[in-house]
Write a structure and sequence with these properties.
By secondary structure, the first copy, chain A, is an alpha+beta fold. Helix content of chain A is about 35%, strand content about 25%. Chains A, B: GO terms for molecular function: ATP binding; magnesium ion binding; thiamine-phosphate kinase activity.
């Protein structure tokens, strides 16, 4: 084994996780899905399935407390946590919250964080059943673990998409990134102009700022799927950005994908921010993460039926044979490879 | 609500968690035990129980990388995680590991950490089924969440102890703290004498250093309880120290406790370290944490039977009526209150 210092950046967190998951480790036969989907899946004795997922949020990396109120942070963390369970077509039941808390945080700040967690918990009907609170001499680090349930009939993996399936997206894309761009701009303004300056007016940007700070996990889609007895062939939530999620579904399903740029759902407010920043709004939609929308695949016939029951989604493309690769038809009619998009 | 900055230290993490758990939050009727035991307990449809627990370890607070090899750290974190499941008389099945990793850590260091996790995972037959890897600009923070199972017949809470029950402890106490004292002394020596000094010989202290760095969770006790069909009336693992754990069992069971100082199980190696440090070894046993031993209560008759099947435990006291409080009979025969022990 090499004695050289190999940085994690040089292989990326995905590369590192691949290295690690190739180790010789104990395998539990009850585990039907380990690392590699939105949540791990474990078979219970009764035949139903347990879903487990967890995420970490690092101050200064994943959130900036200068523009993130702690109650919003709590709300977002719980929402993102349950979103992983929804992405498996499951129902979140309980969460554990772990905090490493620097001593510049007051009791009130931690209470605010929990108020946000509890507010989102009510909405998604999950109980905070445990966790840990430790002192940290450095920054705030929050981990959340989510426990959810689904039965074998309804579970939706990334790997189930079929050739010809429509690729569907709830809501709209790029809003969370647009909100982040605004908050970063305002932070820069505060830093340059100091405390004596007038507080910025975020009212005009309320839509996108909310998309960034208090995103909503799409319980409504999963509830409707259940009520109307539709089961997507695959599903994933939008946390890393559309291109990344389409790649994940395609890779897991051993297929290619063909996306129509003109079909990308983008809110007018998101467009306005991109215009103001003189940036390309389609890039927000393709690469912006954290929207917590759900992307799912369904046969064309099923889409035509489902639209009668749920209308906050659009079809943005089709699953195609693997040989056809990952392509996007631009608004101008050109066809570009995902590899050329970056 | 007060606008003053109230430090977390001023109310303690326990006080803060109490504040938080009094909030108006969603309650899931499937949750039969929330915050307040070694693990949360959730009832499955089939009738069996799911156990969930999670812990956080902060570099510079919970571990010091100058004397903690990363593979040991991984081993210890997994062992402490499964210990919470054993404390409920359960079987650990799977874990999720979350890392916030500073960029001064190499790929090899993270691999070492996982090697330790996997080594302990094999021993305890748990699979690493997921988690998260994030960059941190500050220190290493590790969270582990453990999923375990137990049936309703075997689950052991903190709250089930009966008056007259014997208080039993596996293994021995204070070893992990003795190991920590040695490692801290050696660190100070290195810092004062620099790199040119001879590496210290830890061979004489191998027993206690191992107790600190690679403690063993007591799977053997839980396996034997199951095989021989014994069910403790209550159980907890030794992570905060004996006095704290006896208090937790007594409080949860609404009883008092009477402990015999002379009965505290202390290894000869632990005594030698305390002597060398000119410290009181009984304080190591009473207040030292992280031993990962199990403390359990059982009726006297059952203890007499159980000793035929498992011999690495001793009786250190009895559960008494609540009115009699928390007391310890010293080796000299005096009776002191827990409150006077600190």
């Amino acid at each position: 084994m090499s004695e050289e210092f190999q940085t994690i950046q040089s292989i990326g967190s995905k590369g590192l996780l691949e290295k690690i998951s190739n180790y010789d480790a104990f395998k539990n036969e009850k585990v039907t899905q380990s690392i590699g989907d939105d949540a791990a899946v474990i078979k219970e004795d009764g035949g139903n399935l347990t879903l487990l997922s967890s995420d970490t949020y690092v101050e200064g990396v994943d959130f900036d407390p200068t523009y993130t109120p702690f109650n919003h942070l709590g709300y977002k963390i719980l929402s993102a946590g349950v979103s992983d369970i929804y992405a498996m077509n499951g129902k979140p039941e309980a969460v554990l919250v772990n905090l490493a808390v620097p001593n510049r945080m007051s009791v009130q700040m931690v209470e605010d964080l929990y108020q946000g967690i509890y507010a989102a918990g009510k909405l998604h009907e999950v109980e905070v059943v445990g966790g840990d609170l430790k002192a940290n001499h450095a920054n705030l680090v929050v981990s959340i673990s989510v426990y959810g349930k689904v039965d074998e009939e309804h579970i939706t993996y990334r790997k189930g998409a079929n050739e010809g399936d429509a690729i569907c997206i709830t809501g709209d894309l790029g809003g969370a990134l647009a909100g982040l761009r605004i908050l970063m701009r305002e932070k820069k303004f505060w830093e340059e102009h100091g405390d004596e300056s007038i507080q910025p007016e975020l009212g005009d940007y309320q839509f996108v700022v909310k998309r960034q700070l208090v995103p909503e996990a799409r319980k409504d889609l999963v509830d409707t799927l259940r009520e109307q007895n539709f089961i997507p062939t695959s599903m994933i939530d939008i946390t890393k950005g559309l291109v990344s999620e389409v790649n994940s579904i395609s890779e897991a399903s051993d297929l290619g994908a063909y996306i129509y740029q003109a079909a990308l759902p983008i809110a007018i407010e998101t467009r306005q921010v991109a215009d103001e920043m003189q940036e390309d709004v389609d890039r927000y939609a393709l690469f912006g993460g954290e929207d917590l929308e759900l992307m799912f695949t369904l046969s064309e016939e099923k889409v035509e039926e489902f639209v009668n029951h749920f209308n906050d989604f659009v079809v943005i493309g089709r699953m195609v044979p693997k040989e056809e690769g990952m392509k996007m038809q631009t608004a101008e009619g050109d066809v570009v490879s995902f590899d050329d998009l970056s």
